[in-house]
Amino acid sequence: MKENNPLYISKRSKNGILIFIVIALIVVFIPRFLHFFSEKEKFVITSSDIQEVKDNQSKRTFHQDYPKRKYTKKKFSIPPNKFDPNSYSEKQWMYLGLSKKQAAIVLKFTNRGIYSNEQLKKIFVIPPQLFELIKDSTFYAKKSIEKNQNFHTENKPIILIDVNMANQEKLESIPGVGSFYAKNILKYRDRLGGFVKKEQLLEVWKMDLEKYNEIEKFIIINVNVIRQVHLNSVSAEEFKQHPYFNWNIVNSIVKMRTQKSGFKRIEEIKESVLIDEEFFEKIKPYLSL
Question: Is the pLDDT score of 187 beyond 70?
């Protein structure tokens, strides 16, 4: 009967189960028992650890308390003595406040020779503030002026070409221009509405300073033929064809024009946050009401 009972466990099986339970308990509890009676590792702080913490704190304090560097606008210097701009070196121009690149451009002009403050002022990389500081300290050596005069008397007279009136053939007659530059000058002149100063030729595609220096003495500019943009009637699409105006500036001007029901003065466009004084002076010759 016992063998037929499904819940019947023999004595041998009971002993096996008991041994298994005992072994399982030993495996589980013996490591914990040993760990409990073993000596706990002490947490020790050494003097070197303390010093390291102090050093890290001092570094953080240094960076937090160190004053932020203040950047100020670059100031120009007054020349220590009277000077001939034709004899000034790159370092001397940099001492007056020009950057290395600006000084290098000035030397391009002075190496050819300049003979008056009027010519010095026309060097476009010399800021007006610096020119005002140095104009009373300049002199031009007599030999340099005589050399310039001899250059014009000993050589053939220079034929001046008005870049705002000349066609391609006339432009190609300028020494150093050729058909490539003549076409590029005409394309940019058409987009611009005419040149108001010689330095704008440097905005012509592929025109570099070397080429500009080569041709500028043959050029004059008639500003009376400048094509102007009529602020109160020009469309936004026509407006943005001008190389000096991007879409954001055009959009800002058109919105102001609508709000004001037309501009009364050209200067009103300076109310746009996108138009500062420098940009306004640049575009002013091309604007009308």
Answer: yes
